[in-house]
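fold-stage: in
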Amino acid sequence: MRSWRRWWHRESTVPLRAPRLDGSTWPGHDPGARSGFEAATTHRLGLDAAFTPEAHDVADLVVARLVPHLDFAASVDDLPHTIDLLRSATRIGAGLGLVDARRRPGRDRMRAEVAGALVEAEHDLPPLTPPLARLVRYLLHAGHHVARLGPETVDLLEADLTGSIPD
């Protein structure tokens, strides 16, 4: 049984790291990521924020700059739906980033319940093939990252995807 004192003083933030396609920086893997009521509530707030103009702007920027560098297969008929799925995931991540930024956890930290909310957002998705699920998770994380740190961070994410060094 966990003691109340130890639970109460549990770390409330996890490192804010740039998303990677291999998933190595996915905040949901961090042992400090929280699940439960706080994560569920934050997930709901992030879904609400995903419909704001700010989240749409982040999603439009991220999708326009990063999706052309992603390797995925879709038939001609499925391509518009796949792009919509990728844009929606980015927008949800951006909504969570906007919610996270309101509490100002620090430029290099994210709130632990936001990390858990990103996991909940991933679990809310329909069943996807593993390659597409990996890209959707990446874009959830990228949307959060750009919403938290600003549009200039998309240059670094694009450079990471292309293997180039930004100017």
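fold-stage: in (second)
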Amino acid sequence: MEENETKNVVNHFEAGANCQVFNGPITGCVFAMPGSTVTQQPVVQQGGGEEEAAGDDRQEEPTEQDDVVERLKPIFYNNAENVSRFLNEIEGMKDKDITDVVNQWVGDKLISDYGNSRKGDLWTILSEVGLYKSSRQNWCRRVF
């Protein structure tokens, strides 16, 4: 519903000033500084209506972290939340500290201790993504 009201717009600014004055409701506009990059995305209306924003049906691309989480899930009893927590905890740690965390998590039954998963698969994945830089031999000596 549109109002048929006459609007009187008076802009006061200093000559040579780099500013803009907007009076009244403004929707669907993009304001940016010269030289900036603007990415427009559809606006999702609030209020629980049935209408969806156009183009909102696209799928998000999986990130590298998502791929690592999926690869590590079997070693963490398929618990993606624990995998993410583990990755955040070891981020930036020294390799010897990472193996200490692994041993603690195995003791707490958050990382599987069956077969070769802890000794081989976990080292392989962490090494491939650059989180653990020491050799497999070093890993196997430190992880119980």
